[in-house]
Design brief:
By secondary structure, the protein is α/β, with parallel strands linked by helices. The protein is 39% helix and 7% strand. The protein has 15 helices and seven strands.
Length: 433
Amino acid sequence: FSHPRRTPGTNTPNRSHTNIMSAVTMTSIVAPTAKPVGRVARHQFGAAPATFGKGNGSKTVMMSRWKGMDEDISDDQQDIARGRNMVDSKFQGGFGLGGTHNAVMSSSDYISDGFKDVSNMTDEGYYISKSFMDKFCVHIAKNFMDLPKIKVPLILGVWGGKGQGKTFQSMLIFKKLGVGPIVMSAGELESGNAGEPAKLIRQRYREASDIIKKGKMSTLFINDLDAGAGRMGGATQYTVNNQMVNATLMNLADNPTNVQLPGQYQVEEIPRVPIIATGNDFSTLYAPLIRDGRMEKFYWSPTFEDRVGVACGIFKADGVAEKDVEVLCRTFDGQSIDFFGALRARVYDDKVREWISETGIDNMGPLLVNPKRGNKVTFEAPRMSLDILLQYGKALEMEQENVKRVQLADAYLDGAVLAGEGGSSNTAQSLLA
């Protein structure tokens, strides 16, 4: 446009011409809104009803192919992930982690760090103890039931000897029951920041409650509770976090549907979440925590039948007969159940040595760390007969005996154990020599 005409002798533009130009400009900018023709976009529906009247009858019309997401009130970041493969791949903008079908944020606000996915875990061929299954099923069912005037303990404490399969049995039962557990370990029950473990317990509890709210069973599963919150003799330092962990678990057991995070003080009732904790000795825990109204205790000491059943599951893929497994269990009667898993792994040593000899020590690293396609390390499974298993089992027992027999810390801490003229700095010979 040309500049507005000015009045001779002044710097003031011609106002009538300016007003006309403004009107023309605004008219050209603000165009009339066209009515939608043909298919209507998703955002134009608003709160339109799902049915449109036509004559005397009505016809149900799907508003869009994303109707499931229209009614979903969950977070948009997860909606992005749910939309994967619902449109052609050419419209998803990239592949792998950079694709537009992946959520931008993946923090614990969206996906819990403690969630344990047991859906891909196979329970085929593995033995589940009947007493273990019974205790788990009864405890979980009672916590989800509304029993009148019954005080149901929120916490189930499973304790017993080391390596007896408490955690593995628990995961097999979770798989069978369709439970998605939120898992914590003893290492998370202590922190350099005071109050952090107690806050984390509440957060994980609420995450499990959110899973239950969406229609799936969940539990808060704490591994080795006594190692993180117990007192192992007089030498164990008792910290503020130990106190707060015990107090928080006591509070959860007393008020399982009113669990608040720091800074959030509104009263909001949430679904009750059963808590299952494992450990070796619950007598090290704070006594009011393990009282009967708060914690139901289950001492797990596998019978001979349980030991044979678990060991048969361990050696099933190797074709070891059940009668041979019974001989193993009787021969190594004092060993824990994980001994048989270590025994099976030890039998593979000879095959691994053969592979190292064939490959060469210099060429071993690249093949193990970054193998090329088609060069994955494979070899035939070793033969596992009763004689071979007994031989390797005795070797494992001798290594255990060495640890018990040669206790160098006792000698080294008592004084300066030097050879001198008549002594020796050489240690005792191994029983395997």
